[in-house]
Design brief:
By secondary structure, this protein is an alpha+beta fold. It has one domain: Alpha-Beta Plaits, CATH 3.30.70.100. 35% of the residues lie in helices and 30% in strands. It has 6 helices and 8 strands; from the N terminus they run αβαββαββαββααβ.
Length: 258
């Protein structure tokens, strides 16, 4: 079923699209994809447990590799935070599937594979889980170690249109990230919302992976160029997103996408 887009959003979509597309280029129509579900388990571990967590990761990777090989999931990763905050998470793991059944089956397998005597995770001072869904995403099949993942968290304003994430994704995010994916700057991207709502409505995340650190510089340059190409795109985005609620996260990732 297609969503009804308010007339005002067509104008906004056009303005945002101008910033993402190269001058004179014809951009293909961006459409929603089948839902991609991602489970994220996040933990804050004492520094003394970080080495133990790294050793434990080998068992987790075995579960993920088996699920990836069988087609149960399409991607996974183990993350360690690079920019730490006083009360922030230090580690997380994630896995993605085109079905909720696939995501939850892997969760069951991880719980069954955990040693009975406990793991580094039992020392966590903080833990939370998220179950996300994306309809705007893409990747190149690859395995990677020590990649850089950037996550930008946003919250929509109460006055934003109901289809605000569709507008931002179709007009700006997807065209920009598809170009960066095609030239090898990024390995994967997704624009996520909560499938199971555990935070305030309107929260969404823009995620991309770079194999090397210079990829982050290239993404920033592309963003600067996109914003500079049209003076109206910044105000258009500000009209929908709460600036004060924006947060960024940078992590190192070992993982794979099939």
């Amino acid at each position: 079923m297609t969503k009804n887009i308010p007339v005002a959003s067509f104008g906004l979509l056009s303005v945002i699209a101008l910033a993402a597309a190269p001058a004179g280029a014809q951009t293909a129509e961006v459409k929603e994809k089948p839902p991609l579900y991602t489970y994220v388990g996040s933990f804050a571990l004492p520094r003394a447990k970080w080495a133990e967590m790294e050793k434990q990761s080998a068992a987790t990777l075995k579960v993920f590799d088996k699920a990836l090989s069988s087609g149960q999931i399409v991607g996974y990763g183990l993350d360690t935070a690079l920019v730490h905050t006083q009360d922030g998470d230090t580690h997380d793991s994630f896995w993605s599937s085109l079905s909720l059944a696939g995501v939850l089956a892997v969760l069951d397998d991880l719980e069954k594979s955990a040693p009975s005597g406990g793991t580094a995770l039992t020392s966590a001072t903080k833990h939370d889980d998220s179950l996300l869904v994306s309809r705007y995403y893409n990747w190149k099949p690859a395995s990677f170690k020590g990649a850089y993942s950037h996550v930008a968290a946003y919250t929509l304003k109460d006055t934003a249109p109901d289809n605000a994430i569709d507008v931002l994704s179709k007009g700006f995010g997807v065209p920009l990230f598809e170009k960066l994916l095609a030239d090898g700057t990024i390995l994967e991207y997704e624009i996520d919302q909560e499938q199971i709502h555990t935070s305030a409505p309107g929260r969404f995340w823009v995620v991309y992976f770079c194999k090397t650190a210079d990829g982050l510089d290239k993404v920033n340059a592309a963003l600067d160029s996109a914003f500079g190409a049209n003076a109206f795109v910044g105000p258009a985005l500000d009209s929908m997103v709460q600036p004060a609620a924006h947060r960024d996260f940078l992590v190192r990732t070992d993982g794979a996408f099939k």
